[in-house]
Design brief:
Elements (H helix, E strand, L loop, with lengths): L9 E5 L3 H7 L4 H27 L6 E8 H6 L2 H21 L5 E6 L7 H14 L5 E9 L1 H13 L7 H6 L11 E4 L18 E4 L9 H13 L7
Parallel strand pairs: 1-2, 1-5, 2-4, 3-4, 5-6
Helix pairs in contact: 1-2, 2-4, 4-5
Length: 237
Protein backbone atom coordinates (compact mmCIF):
# COMPACT_ATOMS: atom_id res chain seq x y z
CA UNK A 1 0.00 0.00 0.00
CA UNK A 2 1.32 3.43 -0.92
CA UNK A 3 2.19 5.70 1.99
CA UNK A 4 0.03 8.33 0.26
CA UNK A 5 -3.06 6.43 1.42
CA UNK A 6 -2.21 7.05 5.09
CA UNK A 7 -0.99 10.63 5.31
CA UNK A 8 -1.64 12.60 8.51
CA UNK A 9 -4.38 15.20 8.65
CA UNK A 10 -2.69 17.38 11.29
CA UNK A 11 1.09 17.66 11.68
CA UNK A 12 2.79 19.45 14.58
CA UNK A 13 6.37 20.61 14.35
CA UNK A 14 8.90 21.76 16.94
CA UNK A 15 11.97 23.02 15.13
CA UNK A 16 14.47 22.99 17.97
CA UNK A 17 18.21 23.63 18.10
CA UNK A 18 18.64 27.07 16.51
CA UNK A 19 21.23 28.31 18.98
CA UNK A 20 23.26 25.09 18.84
CA UNK A 21 23.23 25.20 15.03
CA UNK A 22 24.48 28.79 15.05
CA UNK A 23 27.30 27.95 17.50
CA UNK A 24 28.42 24.93 15.44
CA UNK A 25 28.60 26.99 12.26
CA UNK A 26 30.18 30.08 13.79
CA UNK A 27 27.10 32.25 13.37
CA UNK A 28 25.63 34.66 15.85
CA UNK A 29 22.54 33.74 17.84
CA UNK A 30 20.58 36.30 15.82
CA UNK A 31 21.48 34.55 12.56
CA UNK A 32 20.45 31.19 14.03
CA UNK A 33 17.07 32.58 15.04
CA UNK A 34 16.42 33.92 11.55
CA UNK A 35 17.46 30.68 9.88
CA UNK A 36 15.09 28.79 12.17
CA UNK A 37 12.15 31.01 11.28
CA UNK A 38 13.05 30.71 7.60
CA UNK A 39 12.87 26.91 7.95
CA UNK A 40 9.34 27.17 9.35
CA UNK A 41 8.25 29.28 6.40
CA UNK A 42 9.95 26.82 4.05
CA UNK A 43 8.03 23.84 5.46
CA UNK A 44 4.65 25.53 5.21
CA UNK A 45 4.97 27.28 1.88
CA UNK A 46 7.69 25.51 -0.12
CA UNK A 47 7.60 21.87 0.96
CA UNK A 48 3.82 21.63 0.56
CA UNK A 49 4.06 22.85 -3.03
CA UNK A 50 6.94 20.50 -3.75
CA UNK A 51 5.09 17.53 -2.25
CA UNK A 52 1.93 18.31 -4.21
CA UNK A 53 3.92 18.55 -7.43
CA UNK A 54 5.81 15.34 -6.71
CA UNK A 55 2.97 13.16 -5.41
CA UNK A 56 -0.22 14.87 -6.55
CA UNK A 57 -1.70 15.21 -3.05
CA UNK A 58 -1.25 17.42 0.00
CA UNK A 59 1.16 16.11 2.68
CA UNK A 60 -1.29 17.25 5.39
CA UNK A 61 -4.24 19.59 5.82
CA UNK A 62 -3.16 21.31 9.00
CA UNK A 63 0.24 22.29 10.41
CA UNK A 64 1.00 23.63 13.89
CA UNK A 65 4.41 24.98 14.84
CA UNK A 66 5.86 25.79 18.25
CA UNK A 67 7.22 29.26 17.65
CA UNK A 68 7.89 30.60 21.16
CA UNK A 69 7.02 29.24 24.59
CA UNK A 70 5.60 31.19 27.50
CA UNK A 71 8.62 30.10 29.52
CA UNK A 72 10.85 31.62 26.83
CA UNK A 73 9.06 34.92 27.45
CA UNK A 74 9.57 34.60 31.20
CA UNK A 75 13.13 33.27 31.30
CA UNK A 76 15.11 34.38 28.25
CA UNK A 77 17.20 37.60 28.40
CA UNK A 78 15.44 40.66 26.99
CA UNK A 79 18.06 41.08 24.26
CA UNK A 80 17.44 37.57 22.95
CA UNK A 81 13.65 37.97 23.16
CA UNK A 82 13.89 41.21 21.20
CA UNK A 83 15.90 39.43 18.50
CA UNK A 84 13.35 36.62 18.27
CA UNK A 85 10.33 38.91 18.18
CA UNK A 86 11.92 41.29 15.69
CA UNK A 87 12.71 38.35 13.41
CA UNK A 88 9.10 37.14 13.58
CA UNK A 89 7.82 40.66 12.93
CA UNK A 90 9.96 41.00 9.80
CA UNK A 91 8.99 37.52 8.55
CA UNK A 92 5.25 38.09 8.97
CA UNK A 93 5.58 41.49 7.33
CA UNK A 94 7.38 39.90 4.36
CA UNK A 95 4.75 37.15 4.04
CA UNK A 96 2.05 39.82 3.90
CA UNK A 97 3.99 41.96 1.42
CA UNK A 98 4.83 39.05 -0.91
CA UNK A 99 1.35 37.51 -0.56
CA UNK A 100 3.01 34.12 -0.12
CA UNK A 101 0.21 33.22 2.28
CA UNK A 102 -2.20 32.36 -0.58
CA UNK A 103 -4.53 29.46 0.26
CA UNK A 104 -3.16 29.18 3.82
CA UNK A 105 -5.27 30.26 6.78
CA UNK A 106 -2.96 31.42 9.56
CA UNK A 107 -4.10 31.33 13.20
CA UNK A 108 -2.01 32.39 16.19
CA UNK A 109 -2.53 31.12 19.73
CA UNK A 110 -0.92 31.94 23.05
CA UNK A 111 -0.48 34.91 25.35
CA UNK A 112 -0.27 37.35 22.47
CA UNK A 113 -0.56 40.26 24.92
CA UNK A 114 2.92 39.36 26.22
CA UNK A 115 4.52 40.14 22.84
CA UNK A 116 5.88 43.42 21.54
CA UNK A 117 3.16 45.73 20.13
CA UNK A 118 4.61 45.74 16.60
CA UNK A 119 4.61 41.92 16.54
CA UNK A 120 1.02 41.84 17.82
CA UNK A 121 0.06 44.18 14.96
CA UNK A 122 1.58 41.91 12.29
CA UNK A 123 -0.05 38.85 13.85
CA UNK A 124 -3.53 40.38 13.70
CA UNK A 125 -2.95 41.62 10.16
CA UNK A 126 -1.78 38.22 8.90
CA UNK A 127 -4.76 36.52 10.54
CA UNK A 128 -7.19 38.97 8.92
CA UNK A 129 -5.54 38.63 5.50
CA UNK A 130 -5.86 34.85 5.55
CA UNK A 131 -9.10 34.18 7.42
CA UNK A 132 -11.02 33.15 4.29
CA UNK A 133 -8.45 30.67 2.96
CA UNK A 134 -9.05 26.98 3.47
CA UNK A 135 -6.58 24.87 1.49
CA UNK A 136 -4.25 24.62 4.47
CA UNK A 137 -4.58 25.56 8.15
CA UNK A 138 -1.41 26.92 9.70
CA UNK A 139 -1.44 27.31 13.50
CA UNK A 140 1.37 29.23 15.20
CA UNK A 141 1.75 28.63 18.95
CA UNK A 142 3.55 31.73 20.21
CA UNK A 143 4.06 32.87 23.81
CA UNK A 144 2.38 29.52 24.37
CA UNK A 145 2.15 26.91 27.10
CA UNK A 146 -0.23 23.96 26.94
CA UNK A 147 -0.95 23.91 30.67
CA UNK A 148 -1.68 27.63 30.65
CA UNK A 149 -4.02 27.14 27.68
CA UNK A 150 -6.00 24.35 29.39
CA UNK A 151 -6.18 26.20 32.70
CA UNK A 152 -7.49 29.36 31.04
CA UNK A 153 -10.04 27.42 28.99
CA UNK A 154 -11.39 25.58 32.05
CA UNK A 155 -11.73 28.83 34.00
CA UNK A 156 -13.59 30.43 31.08
CA UNK A 157 -15.81 27.35 30.69
CA UNK A 158 -16.79 27.56 34.34
CA UNK A 159 -18.17 31.04 33.71
CA UNK A 160 -20.12 29.90 30.65
CA UNK A 161 -23.78 28.81 30.78
CA UNK A 162 -22.90 25.39 29.34
CA UNK A 163 -21.87 22.12 31.05
CA UNK A 164 -18.11 21.97 31.63
CA UNK A 165 -17.39 19.08 29.27
CA UNK A 166 -14.82 18.48 26.51
CA UNK A 167 -16.73 20.44 23.85
CA UNK A 168 -17.27 23.44 26.11
CA UNK A 169 -13.64 23.60 27.20
CA UNK A 170 -12.55 23.24 23.57
CA UNK A 171 -14.47 26.39 22.65
CA UNK A 172 -12.16 28.40 24.90
CA UNK A 173 -8.87 26.91 23.71
CA UNK A 174 -6.44 28.99 21.66
CA UNK A 175 -7.13 26.76 18.64
CA UNK A 176 -10.79 25.71 18.99
CA UNK A 177 -10.97 24.70 15.32
CA UNK A 178 -7.85 22.52 15.42
CA UNK A 179 -8.25 18.81 14.78
CA UNK A 180 -6.40 16.26 16.94
CA UNK A 181 -2.72 16.08 16.09
CA UNK A 182 -1.78 12.92 14.17
CA UNK A 183 1.96 13.40 13.84
CA UNK A 184 4.42 15.42 15.91
CA UNK A 185 8.02 15.96 14.84
CA UNK A 186 10.68 17.46 17.11
CA UNK A 187 14.22 18.12 15.94
CA UNK A 188 17.52 18.43 17.84
CA UNK A 189 17.39 15.12 19.70
CA UNK A 190 15.39 16.50 22.62
CA UNK A 191 12.77 14.02 23.84
CA UNK A 192 10.17 15.97 25.80
CA UNK A 193 6.80 17.62 25.15
CA UNK A 194 7.73 21.04 26.57
CA UNK A 195 4.05 21.77 27.22
CA UNK A 196 3.25 21.77 23.51
CA UNK A 197 -0.39 21.34 22.41
CA UNK A 198 -1.23 19.09 25.36
CA UNK A 199 -4.97 19.21 24.72
CA UNK A 200 -4.56 18.05 21.11
CA UNK A 201 -1.66 15.60 21.15
CA UNK A 202 -3.03 12.64 23.15
CA UNK A 203 -2.87 10.05 20.31
CA UNK A 204 -0.20 11.62 18.13
CA UNK A 205 2.58 9.54 16.63
CA UNK A 206 5.81 11.16 17.85
CA UNK A 207 9.10 11.37 15.96
CA UNK A 208 12.21 12.71 17.70
CA UNK A 209 14.88 13.55 15.12
CA UNK A 210 18.55 14.09 15.96
CA UNK A 211 19.11 16.78 13.31
CA UNK A 212 18.96 20.43 14.33
CA UNK A 213 16.18 22.63 12.98
CA UNK A 214 18.16 24.16 10.14
CA UNK A 215 19.43 20.73 9.04
CA UNK A 216 15.91 19.30 8.77
CA UNK A 217 15.44 18.55 5.07
CA UNK A 218 12.48 17.91 2.80
CA UNK A 219 13.70 14.33 2.34
CA UNK A 220 13.67 13.84 6.13
CA UNK A 221 10.09 15.05 6.21
CA UNK A 222 8.99 12.66 3.47
CA UNK A 223 10.74 9.78 5.24
CA UNK A 224 8.84 10.59 8.44
CA UNK A 225 5.57 10.54 6.48
CA UNK A 226 6.47 7.14 5.09
CA UNK A 227 7.28 5.78 8.54
CA UNK A 228 4.07 7.29 9.93
CA UNK A 229 2.04 5.50 7.26
CA UNK A 230 3.11 2.06 8.50
CA UNK A 231 2.58 2.66 12.21
CA UNK A 232 -0.35 0.83 13.76
CA UNK A 233 -2.53 3.54 15.34
CA UNK A 234 -4.89 1.63 17.63
CA UNK A 235 -6.33 4.54 19.67
CA UNK A 236 -6.66 2.28 22.71
CA UNK A 237 -8.29 -0.63 20.86
Amino acid sequence: MSFLNRLPNHVALTLDGNRRWAERHGYSRKVGIRFGIKKTKEVMYDWTRKFEKEYGVKPFNELTIHALTLNNIKLRPKEELDEIQDAFTETFRQVIRDKSYANVRVKFGGRIDKLKPELQKEIRLLESKTEDFDKYKFNVAIAYDGNDEIRGAVISANYSPYPVDYDTVNKFMFFPDASPIDLWIRTSGEKRLSGFMLFYIGYAEIFFLDCLAEDFKYEDFVNVLKEYSIRDRRFGK
